[in-house]
Specification:
Shape: globular
Structural class: mainly alpha
Order of helices and strands: HHHHHHHHHHHHHHHHHHHHH
Radius of gyration: 21 Å
Number of helices: 21
Oligomer: single chain
Strand content: under 5%
Distance between the termini: 24 Å
Amino acid sequence: MSPTPSTASTGPAATGPRTQESPLRVAVASFIGNTIELYDFFIYGMAAALVLDDVFFPNLSPLNATLASFSTYAVAFLARPIGSIVFGHFGDRVGRKSVLVASLLLMGLSTALVGLLPGYATLGSWAPVLLVLLRFLQGIGIGGEWGGAVLLAVEHAPRGRRGLYAAFPQLGPPVGFSAATGVFWLMSASLDEAAFAGWGWRVPFLLSFLLVAVGLVVRLKISETPVFARSVAERAASRAPLTELVRRHPRELLLGAGAMAIVYTLFYASMTYGLSYTTASLGVPRNTMLALSLVACLFLATAIWLSATRSDTDGRRKLVLTGCGLAAVWALLLFPLLDTGRPVVMAVAMGGALFCVGVISGPMGAYLPELFPARVRYSGASLSYNLGGVLGGAVSPLVVPRLQSGFGSASVGWYVCAMAVVSLLCVRALPETKERELV
């Protein structure tokens, strides 16, 4: 990746006919690539909830092993803003497409190597150290993924339909999570406990070798966005995107991050920690919870599609505000419903939580990019999205287990409710953007 716009202008970004590529084709390609990267990211959360504590932290007490396992989960969220800065810089300077290829390679190979990593019994203390390193690299890779994927869709889309086309990459999380859950469920259902703990959990990680090859084929066939191509042709690319972003757009950056915080908080509480809590504390069978997770993902995908497409007419801000309000209420119901231990009620609890997540995250595929000009759009959208991940995805794994252990599951609901209120206030301070030109 060359750091100079003049070099980029001789590549795909500057080609004429290719920039008229079908927006739908680009949106589908963005969906496929994002799904693969999110599959890679989510299988780690599944493993952290089900098996990593025993494999990499066998000498700790159950609570401390769970905390250590989820701390490695949180490491990626701390790394994501770094990935946003690095990939965002080149995405705003060189182009969206080449950066997405690099992020896919980093994410996919880091994930696959987790499947090859020996446990504590073989490597001793080096095993968790290397696990943290690979999780950190995962975070760097995913930090550059989302911004580029939604920009490919949004910057190819016609005005008035950006929410629709951005819905495609936004469906990556539920489909990626469903794929991760389905593979873990298959391995868990077909193997006994010893085989699953010994090698079965590694299979979902090793599948990443195949998926990254598929993703590369898809991404190498799409063209650069016409918005970035125009920016290059006019020599309007920023020399220092991060510096310009922080100096000229700090309000949008911070409020966008705050708006995203509840998405990560509620998803973690209901799906990642919820999976660990219900299997370890309530004694619900692992296969039952994995099956319920698949059902919940249907609610997430439905809400994303409905809210994203509806945002083209009703506006992004209105729908995100509605989702934050729903999340604040549902947070207080989540754990009382889970505590019943009844599968149907638990499915409602998890499905309702993910429906709230979907209502908020659906419009975000268009909303965050529209907050920033083309010169810093990759950096701005990506960094705000992933700073929200720090607030919701890195802090929650450290706070939620301690709250539940010390004050009961109801305290977790109040914590999630408070985060929903914070996000709601941030969105109220942001403008509506659906009528903005992408310049």
